[in-house]
Specification:
Length: about 400
């Protein structure tokens, strides 16, 4: 049943992207998981079909369509196809990195970068997390020291999605040690800059085809012309864009739970053909009824958040609610579905097994569940202070 959130053009994109995934991604995804990376050429392939950086203005080679519902369709379909690793790389490029370039890049930067971003020739990443600074962005220690027309960047980042493939990395760096919040600045580091190094792809629990990596900056000289916005505005810029990042994760999480349940229902039906006790069927029926209800309730809230975001009305607290609730639901549902698959779910080639390992990190990246609850809690102003 089509959801009220989407219109005909969104469903047309859904059908086109589903066909692209079936043809160009699904047959190869297992090999990419073994390799630990999605080939760069796939981003360009996706761009030729209109699935990359849709919000880039037409004068820079994009479609000029700034409607997050198109992004949401791509996130949902990647989960439905069982290719979460590929989907994460694409949604990071579209949903998370591109908004910084659209909002803060000056005319020269837009001319230099946006066309390549739209064609998939320039893959993007954002580098916030550090070995000693995760959810607390104000504790970022990577430094950027101004020397004339350059910044000298030193430090390290870790768990960076698209870390190996990325040509443009938006780096949050500290330009003022005296100020925790006004001391951060966003700089774009480009592939090939001297003394900018990447570690090997990290060996993760799940999301195996996603090239997550460590980045190292050993006094990298970055032109001031690569700064996004004003010096010291980095923390505010991050705060402004994190709600869309968290909403993107929530959309994918609900879709992941939904497809896990669909796989499980199909599995139960096929096993029932070989016989099952009435008691076992009733237990399974109740379990599936509970999951179906929880998913539908979560989807209603997330869809409401998408509508609010498209209207420019989504606040940080609602984005945090959507992110933590949807990802925790994803974890519960996928785990329960794995249980209902029995031994079949334990097989590494099983889609439910891949979904189970892929799901765990969603409660961590984009802000942990605990941080999301802190954001929601602050919005309640329980201590009498004004809501934040």
């Amino acid at each position: 049943m089509r959801r009220e959130l989407y219109e005909d053009e969104h469903e047309a994109l859904r059908a086109s992207f589903a066909a692209f995934l079936a043809r160009e991604v699904v047959p190869h995804h297992g090999a990419w998981e073994q390799a630990g990376i999605v080939p760069r050429a796939v981003f360009a392939q996706a761009a030729r079909h209109g699935f990359v950086a849709m919000a880039v203005p037409e004068e820079h080679g994009g479609a000029g369509v700034d409607d997050f519902r198109f992004n949401a369709v791509l996130g949902e379909e990647a989960q439905r196809a069982g290719v979460a690793s590929f989907g994460l790389g694409l949604t990071l490029h579209n949903d998370i990195c591109l908004p910084y370039l659209l909002a803060y890049a000056d005319a020269d930067q837009r001319a230099r970068w946006l066309r390549g971003v739209a064609t998939g020739e320039l893959i993007t990443a954002i580098a916030m997390t550090e070995p000693g600074a995760g959810s607390d962005l104000a504790s970022i220690g990577t430094r950027a020291r101004r020397e004339g027309d350059e910044y000298v960047v030193s430090g390290a980042k870790t768990f960076i999605t698209n870390g190996l493939n990325a040509d443009l990395v938006i780096v949050a760096a500290r330009t003022d040690r005296a100020s925790r919040h006004r001391g951060l600045t966003l700089l774009v580091l480009e592939r090939g800059m001297e003394r900018f190094a990447r570690g090997p792809g990290l060996d993760k629990l799940g999301q195996h085809a996603q090239d997550t990596a460590e980045l190292f900056f050993d006094d990298v000289r970055v032109p001031v012309a690569n700064r996004l916005g004003a010096e010291g505005d980095g923390f505010a810029q991050l705060m402004a864009n994190l709600p869309q990042e968290r909403l993107s994760i929530a959309v994918a999480a609900v879709a992941a739970a939904d497809v896990a349940l669909a796989w499980t229902i199909e599995h139960v039906r096929s096993r029932h053909a070989f016989g099952a006790t009435i008691g076992a069927l009733q237990h399974t029926r109740f379990a599936c009824a509970e999951m179906r209800t929880e998913i539908d309730v979560a989807r209603a809230f997330v869809d409401r958040c998408v509508r609010a975001h498209v209207a420019g009305e989504l606040d940080a607290a609602d984005a945090a609610k959507a992110k933590w609730w949807a990802t925790e639901l994803q974890g519960r549902v996928v785990d329960r579905c794995l249980q209902l698959h029995g031994g079949y779910g334990y097989m590494t080639e099983s889609p439910i097994a891949r979904a189970w390992v892929d799901a765990r990190v969603t409660r961590i990246y984009g802000g942990t569940t605990e941080i999301m609850k802190e954001i929601v809690g602050r919005s309640l102003a329980l201590d009498g202070a004004p809501a934040r």
